[in-house]
Amino acid sequence: MKTQFNVAEGIYGTFYYHLRVSDEPFALCGDRIMHTSIPFSAWGTTTHVKERWCSRCANLEKEINHE
Question: Where in the chain are the domains?
Fold first, then answer.
């Protein structure tokens, strides 16, 4: 069974996103985060606001779900 992740916003930068498991207070990479309503399906999408996505979280998500 694959682990379900939520998108969260980092507290140190605007439009910088991380992944977390459920309602954990820290991202997969260990950074502190805030709640967001962005769905996981939007992970990695870049729009006119130039979102940035944590590469450490992305790599950890792949390790967890694709082993």
Answer: 5-65
